[in-house]
Amino acid sequence: MNGLKVMTDECSLFSRCMSAYVDGELDPGHAVDMETHVLRCGTCSERVTFLRAMRASMKRTAEKRVPDAMRARIHAAMVAEKRRVKEADREDHSAKLVSWKYAATLAAAAGVALTVAAAKNQKDVAVTPELARSGATTEMAAAAGMDSLLDDLVALHAHPLPPETTNPEELVRFDPLVGVPVRRPAFQPFVASFNGARVHAMRDQRAALLQYTVDGKHRVTVYVFDPRAVPMRATRLEPRVVRERAVYVGKLRGYSVAAAEKSGVGYALATDFDDERSAQLVLAAAQQ
Questions:
Q1: More confident residue, 143 or 202
Q2: Which residues, in sequence order, are CB contacts of 166 under 8 Å at separation 6+?
């Protein structure tokens, strides 16, 4: 999977329209150019495969949409702002430029409002082109949230706290605190023993922290969290496709870290295994 690390100037050019290509929104002429490049470029081929795996995962879990009433209100606000810009254009050209900057800010804020409102109501949001174009603010906030979660995970793996319970049957009481079902991963086919669990607060969210020993000597710390509150968009981990599943892997503070999502539940773990083993472990955790 080392191809993802090698990027050429041509790859950088094509990466700008890769999401549109995967979504089928690229015009035919550019789509042909993209397909030609992907066929001979292992790096971009793996990126396309990863994006398609992510889209497939999102389609399996995001069945609800943002309420139509909210969409209508935001659309009406944007239409009103465009009308105001046109009126300002008749009076002063400079006012037009300032107003359009304000309109762009309004559009970005609207995208953030949609995402936050949907997460607060614990509803899955279908990713539409309109939401995808809402602005970089949402992307940056999501990445910061995932990075913060991973920092907490590694810190607690390096300096573990005592568990609140060592009985896996009690994990069900964590569900309302975390916002997703918390169950004991079997880690099949790995040999793993459950050492205990606790709930860990992450700013305004919570995650279940599960402690394991794998193969008799390797400590594994697992986070189970709500990916609607902390979207799976890690910026410091490398995206991979393992067994046709989208996985993030990498090294943080000397530990191997991996993250994945399944059926609306997020999983992240820290270990002293290599990246390949960690990727296999996080998928095994998601098979509970």
A1: 202
A2: 194, 195, 196, 197
d(CA 112, CA 168): 37
Residue-wise pLDDT for 152-181, tens only, equals 999 999 999 999 999 999 999 999 999 999
Q: Which two tokens stand for residue 226?
A: 């709500």
Residue pair 114/204 in contact by the 8 Å Cβ criterion: no
- Report d(CA 2, CA 11) in Å as an integer: 15
Cα distances from 277 to residues 185, 220, 224, in angstroms, run: 16, 12, 19
Cα angle for residues 149, 151, 153 (degrees, 5° grid) = 70
Do β-strands 205-214 and 192-202 pair in parallel, antiparallel, or remain unpaired?
antiparallel
Instruction: At 273, list the tokens.
Output: 């295994």
* Helix, strand, coil percent content, the chain, rounded in steps of 5: 50, 20, 30
Q: What's the whole-number mean pLDDT along residues 203-211?
A: 87
68 vs 160: which has the higher pLDDT: 160
What average pLDDT is seen over the chain? 77
Asked whether 283 and 247 are in contact (CB, 8 A), the reply is: yes
Q: Are 247 and 218 in contact (CB under 8 A)?
A: no
Query: pLDDT value at position 169?
Result: 93
The tokens of 149 are what? 């979660």
Architecture of domain 139-285: 2-Layer Sandwich (3.30)
